[in-house]
Amino acid sequence: MSQVPMNQGSIDQGQMPAALPGAVALESMGRSGPGTSIPAPGESAERELVGEGLVRAAAEGSELVIPPRARVTPMARDLAFQKGITFVTGRSAEPLAPVASVGRQPARIAVASDHGGFELKSQLIPLLREMGERPVDLGPDTAEVSVDYPDFASLVAREVSEGRVHLGIIVDGAGIGSAMVANKVPGVLAANCWNAASARNAREHNHANVLTLGSGHLDLSGARDVLAAFLSTPVGEGRHARRNHKTLEVEAAHLRARQLARTFEEGRG
């Protein structure tokens, strides 16, 4: 299989030759734009973004190899979900051959809860499988031990942010706290939904990629309705896409400001 070479520097997507099959749409993490994040201590600032161009070039139902520690933009994740594409970490970015399937591939969905949401989460895992999806249970394994929802919400959010899953679901008592935590992670758009209408709105209008549920407000039947609406609703284009881009620009601006402040402080030291 031929591999598409990955340029380690920044690429001007406006100059990407449209005729190249499998063209890689990558941006340097040093550039502004949605999904920009602050490198952790000891981490290189030059972390690539996998954009829509690469996903659009990949075959439906394929597995897409992305660079280690690369970040996938929200629009690229949404397009991958619609095309049934799964991201796999490898040494270079390249589309692989489609996996055998008919129609859209099942979505890989990270699922977690706190102890209060454990029972509903345990019911959602088989439900998601029945719906044809691929849930990944990130814990906890029991409701007998009290745990803190930020720990498990951040696990799901990181999986979504770094492109290892298409979507995330988090269950706690009300769903509010987990949404707040998840939205601290770059590229994550978490929505606390309580009925089918709010779930459809979260996906179409707000491009939500993480769903949070409150076990104190939803039984399994209600959660089923929310899940069905969330998973079957595509993200909206036009004005919805424009507003979503502005939301991500706000996040990127704050991240850049924090990075500049950190660099300044390091220079003073």
Structure summarized in a few sentences:
With 269 residues, the chain is of the alpha/beta class. It is built from eight helices and eleven strands.
What's the structural blueprint in terms of helices and strands?
Layout: E1 26-27, E2 49-50, H1 52-57, E3 62-66, E4 71-72, H2 74-83, E5 86-89, E6 94-98, E7 108-113, H3 118-130, E8 134-137, H4 149-161, E9 167-172, H5 176-182, E10 190-192, H6 196-204, E11 210-214, H7 220-232, H8 239-268
Helix pairs in contact: 3-7, 4-5, 6-7
| Fourth CATH level, the homologous superfamily of the largest domain | Sugar-phosphate isomerase, RpiB/LacA/LacB
Poorly predicted regions are: 1-45, 91-103
Mean pLDDT: 77
So how many helices?
Answer: 8
SSE succession: EEHEEHEEEHEHEHEHEHH
The CATH topology assignment of the largest domain is Ribose 5-phosphate Isomerase B, Chain: A
- As laid out across the biggest beta sheet, the strand order is 8-7-9-11-10
Major sheet size, sense and barrel closure: 5 strands, parallel
| Structural class based on helices, strands and sheet pairing | alpha/beta
CATH architecture of the largest domain: 3-Layer(aba) Sandwich
Percent strand equals 15-25%
Number of strands: 11
Terminus-to-terminus distance: 49 Å
Basic shape: globular
Over the alpha carbons, how many angstroms does the gyration radius reach? 19 Å
Domain unit count: 2
CATH top level of the largest domain?
Alpha Beta
Share of residues in helices: 25-40%
